[in-house]
């Protein structure tokens, strides 16, 4: 089954930028584009918002206008549109399940808008089975230029970041970009050292050489699969979120893995994904585990 690139839109500037980004990515990958709008009928006594049919027509007209604009920029692109009435989280999570990736608009800097008002975006990330990409209103095709890298975070064992690395390398190969693979490390509490870990560190020659070897091991299969992609190995002491943000300025796309957990009040995403979503100016892809 051919999975489309799916863009969730709501008429905001952020979601229209997400639609433009999704269209470009669909063209690069030779995939169709699916445009999804989730809506609910809202009746207000104070103002005339029209009946259900009127509101739906307004929504459809807005979506059709946005789709016409993007289709005009990409004449050969196959585009389908779905205006779906229902809960935004359920609609978007369902759309992600059938997509190569789901693309949404994001404002960041402590506040996420559009589909991401309140906990909606966070719940979509937690529930999505496919990568979810967040795009700012100011994003343009001109940001996808030579010299701008695909930045990806790597942590833990090779399998822990395999899905994120896979997306980063595939994207870089299609764009002719380099991959900057970032592994951040910190000094662990002395009580965290076990005899076995101390032996590994001793064999590696210390903490930083150990981290460099761990990153190289995680990258090895992807270097072999994508020999055309130039790789920059970036190992730095510090928190993962801070190190990733320090190199976000020249990123076409930042890719991070998802560490999500469900609580009594809903899903929560990991601190690294949360930090870069709110503060990175480039598009951010959050990738679930393989």
In short:
The protein has 290 residues and is an alpha/beta fold. It contains nine helices and twelve strands. 41% of the residues are buried.
Chain-wise SSE layout:
Blueprint (H helix, E strand, L loop, with lengths): L4 E4 L4 H17 L3 E7 L12 H22 L5 E7 L2 H10 L3 E5 L14 H8 L4 E4 L13 E5 L8 H14 L3 E7 L9 H10 L2 H19 L5 E7 L2 H7 L4 E7 L2 E4 L2 E4 L1 H9 L4 E4 L3
Parallel strand pairs: 1-2, 1-4, 2-3, 4-5, 6-7, 6-9, 7-8, 9-12
Antiparallel strand pairs: 5-12, 10-11
Features:
alpha/beta, 9 helices, 22% strand, Rossmann fold, 290 residues, single chain, two-stranded antiparallel sheet, 12 strands
Mind explaining what this structure looks like?
The chain folds into two domains: 137 residues, 3-Layer(aba) Sandwich (Rossmann fold), CATH 3.40.50; 142 residues, Rossmann fold (3-Layer(aba) Sandwich). Helix content is 40%, strand content 22%. The protein has nine helices and twelve strands. Helix 1 packs across helix 2. The radius of gyration is 21 Å and the shape is elongated.
What is the total tally of β strands?
12
Mean pLDDT: 84
Instruction: Summarize the helix and strand pattern as letters.
Output: EHEHEHEHEEHEHHEHEEEHE
The rough form would be described as elongated
Give helix % range. 40-55%
Strand content: 15-25%
Question: Strand sequence of the main sheet, in spatial order?
Answer: 3-2-1-4-5-12-9-6-7-8
**Unreliable segments (pLDDT under 50, ≥5 consecutive)?**
109-118
Largest sheet descriptor: 10 strands, mixed
Family: Belongs to the universal stress protein A family.
Organism: Streptomyces griseoflavus Tu4000
Domain UspA: 1-136, 150-288
Protein name: UspA domain-containing protein
């Amino acid at each position: 089954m051919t999975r489309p690139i799916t863009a969730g839109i709501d008429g905001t500037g952020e979601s229209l930028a997400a639609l433009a980004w999704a269209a470009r990515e669909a063209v690069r990958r030779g995939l169709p584009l699916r445009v999804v709008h989730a809506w609910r009928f809202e009746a207000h006594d104070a103002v005339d918002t029209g009946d259900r049919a009127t509101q739906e027509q307004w929504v459809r007209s807005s979506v059709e206008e946005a789709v016409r604009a993007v289709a005009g920029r990409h004449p050969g692109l196959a585009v389908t549109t779905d205006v779906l009435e229902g809960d935004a989280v359920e609609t978007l999570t369902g759309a992600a399940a059938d997509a190569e990736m789901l693309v949404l608009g994001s404002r960041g800097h402590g506040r996420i808008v559009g589909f991401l008002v309140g906990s909606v975006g966070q719940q979509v990330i937690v529930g999505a089975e496919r990568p979810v990409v967040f795009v700012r209103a100011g994003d343009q095709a001109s940001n996808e230029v030579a010299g701008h890298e695909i930045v990806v975070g790597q942590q833990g064992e090779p399998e822990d970041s395999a899905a994120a690395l896979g997306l980063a390398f595939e994207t870089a190969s299609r764009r002719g970009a380099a991959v900057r693979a970032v592994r951040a490390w910190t000094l662990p509490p002395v009580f965290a050292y076990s005899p076995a870990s101390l032996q590994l560190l001793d064999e590696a020659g210390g903490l930083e050489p150990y981290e460099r070897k761990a990153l190289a091991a995680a990258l090895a299969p992807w270097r072999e699969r994508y020999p055309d992609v130039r790789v920059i190995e970036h190992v730095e002491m510090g928190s993962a979120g801070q190190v990733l943000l320090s190199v976000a300025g020249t990123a076409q796309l930042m890719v991070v893995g998802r560490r999500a957990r469900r609580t009594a009040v809903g899903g929560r995403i990991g601190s690294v994904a949360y930090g870069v979503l709110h503060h990175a100016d480039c598009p951010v892809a959050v990738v679930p585990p393989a």
